Amino acid sequence: MIRPRGGDFLYSDQEVEVMRKDIELMKSYGADGLVLGALTEDGRVDAELCMELLAAARPLSVTFHRAFDMVHDPTVALESLVSLGFQRVLTSGCDSSALEGLPLIKRFIDQAKGRIIIMPGGGITERNLQRILEGSGAQEFHCSARSSKDSAMKFRNSCVTMGAAFSAPEYGLKVADVSKVRTLNAIARNTL
Length: 192
Hints:
The protein is an alpha/beta fold. It has helices at 13-28, 47-57, 74-84, 102-112, 129-136, 178-191; strands at residues 33-36, 61-64, 88-91, 117-120, 146-150, 172-176.
């Protein structure tokens, strides 16, 4: 993913330079594709910046990330992404999760008519994947497939936290879970 920081998707000149360098680096390391996105201050796809980043990413496949879920008008934004040449768009249907945004994801797939791949993402698990795929008609999906793993640290300072009250515990790790990936792949194969 080409994203210089968390937060919004309106980038400074310095952040754009970081994105350019990250694209060069990913290409030099043999990435198969990239995920990126940028918006204007009024919530539209930043077509000028996206064109520049797409040109830098060629010949790689490029997905527009969930910045799409923060646009002012997703119907217009989808047409913009098609005309810019993105191969796919990652979306939760402009909602908190793909399951909650399912009706809009289905509308995006209908609107796209195969011109761009609509990839549901956001809160997808083995419990809801089949419903999301069947309800949307999507052929691809994105999920973290993570589980928690306890830290190998023997000494643990319980007096110190490293962030906000709701941050992840210091002695816990989120890791990709191979069994979840296998289960999700099996669900997708049986559904599609």
